[in-house]
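User: Quick sanity check before I run a bigger batch. Here is a single chain. Can you write out its predicted 3D structure?
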Amino acid sequence: MATQEVRSARELERELRQLAGNLPSFVQVAVFVIVSAAATGLAVYIGRWSHGLAITIGVSGPIVAVLVASAIKVANQWEKGIVLRLGEFQGIRGPGVFLIAPIIDRVRMIDMRVQALDIPSQEVITRDNVPVSINGALFFQVKNVEAAVMKIQDFVFSMSLLAQTALRDVIGGMTLDELLSERERIGKLIESAVETDSGEWGLHVSAIRLLDIDMPEDLKRIMSRQAAAEREKRATITKAEGDKLAAENLAAAAATMHASPGAMQLRTLQTVDGLGPTASNTVVLAVPIEIIEMVRRLGATAVPKE
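Assistant: Done. Predicted structure follows.
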């Protein structure tokens, strides 16, 4: 149903473009006015001698003006016109002003600019059996006007279908992790697949980009919990490494103080000095440092040597 709706919209858009292209241009209107005015003036001039000839010129003048005006076509700078004479290919004209044979020639204008197509959302099952919904954008350009018109009925709609099938084929061979982390590579693979088939139609794929990747809500919640657990794991590891480093530094500082007899006293004095400037702090040293040092030395001498 979605594909039919897209095709109907594309057909309507193409018909509107063709209708706009068939409207008379400023050059055609100007030529029609000039030829009609010239025919009217000639009819008035000849009417002095022959009323029948004047009437004939006056009636046939607008018809000739229409034929002359319809023989003139104007292609914009980004357009080329393919000319069919009684249904047979005659050549490619434009850009600019060119002439055709009225009535028997038919012209179809082809836009040579890069065109953008929306790839409708596709329901795809990845290689690890995860259903995802993906849409994208396709950018292509007509390189060979004759092949684009003669070899394919509707190259715009065909490119849309080709991009959808290529997207399904490529995504179906990918896992969910590859799909989420390698979007650029997937776009290149889809572009290569589309370019292989569309090259025969005279079309060139400029780029294919993935837009949105939608997954089931329960899978999103699971992935969110997994990401939160992974972040918590990294935080715990970082904190443990910090505690280990702090413990090593404290052990090194303790070894340095133990090797220097006066280091502990200096450290104690620095601590007291840091607490002293604040009036609300009261520091009480219950046991002087000298007594603690003396007890430590006595204990060391009292231990019997083996």
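The chain has a mean pLDDT of 77.

User: Great, the batch can go ahead then.
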